[in-house]
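Quiz preparation item.
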């Protein structure tokens, strides 16, 4: 049987890099979990006119009348 014996311990730099990678991985998993729980279920419907208005520089807050019309048109 071959025994794997570490000849020298991890240096501080290697240990720090492992800790940083672990923290980044944990943060990505937590952010994905939050997105999956709160953002993904709330699908926002965007039609072509909304996108066209944004790209033409008319991105503004819709008036109250437009907002109410958009709310009524959704099933």
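Solution:
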């Amino acid at each position: 049987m071959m025994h794997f014996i570490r000849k020298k311990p991890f240096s501080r730099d290697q240990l720090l890099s492992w800790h940083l990678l672990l923290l980044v991985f944990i943060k990505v998993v937590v952010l994905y979990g939050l997105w999956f729980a709160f953002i993904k279920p709330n699908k926002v419907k965007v039609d072509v006119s909304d996108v066209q208005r944004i790209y033409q520089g008319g991105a503004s807050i819709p008036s109250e009348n437009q907002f109410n019309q958009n709310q009524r048109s959704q099933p």
